[in-house]
């Protein structure tokens, strides 16, 4: 699929987070890059699944930390 032929459909990616902040940041950056390449509109939803470590503060509060660019 060419980058100029992005899907016009909207997609949501829901990810449950549990005690792995550093890995979660890398995952969201990679996921964001793929979605950005293939979709015009999308959302990433991070769900705190009872994290007992620094996962939520590490991930931040928004996509600015997850942007691949």
Task: Offer a concise description of the structure.
This protein is α+β, with helices and mostly antiparallel strands and 69 residues long. It is 33% helix and 30% strand.
Architecture blueprint of SSEs:
Blueprint (H helix, E strand, L loop, with lengths): L6 E11 L3 H18 E10 L6 H5 L10
Parallel strand pairs: 1-2
Distance between the termini: 20 Å
Helix vs. strand class: alpha+beta
Assess the beta-strand content as a share of residues: 25-35%
Low-pLDDT regions: none
Radius of gyration: 13 Å
Describe this structure in words.
This protein is an alpha+beta fold. The protein is 33% helix and 30% strand. The protein contains 2 helices and 2 strands, in the order E-H-E-H. A two-stranded parallel ribbon has the order 1-2. The longest helix is centred in the middle third of the chain and has 18 residues. It is elongated, with a radius of gyration of 13 Å. The model has no long low-confidence stretch (mean pLDDT 82).
């Amino acid at each position: 699929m060419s980058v100029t032929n992005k899907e016009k459909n909207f997609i949501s990616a829901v990810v449950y987070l549990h005690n792995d902040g550093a890995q979660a940041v890398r995952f969201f950056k990679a996921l964001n890059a793929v979605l950005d390449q293939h979709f015009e509109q999308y959302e990433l939803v991070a769900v705190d699944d009872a994290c007992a470590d620094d996962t939520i503060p590490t991930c931040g509060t928004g996509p600015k930390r997850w942007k691949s660019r």
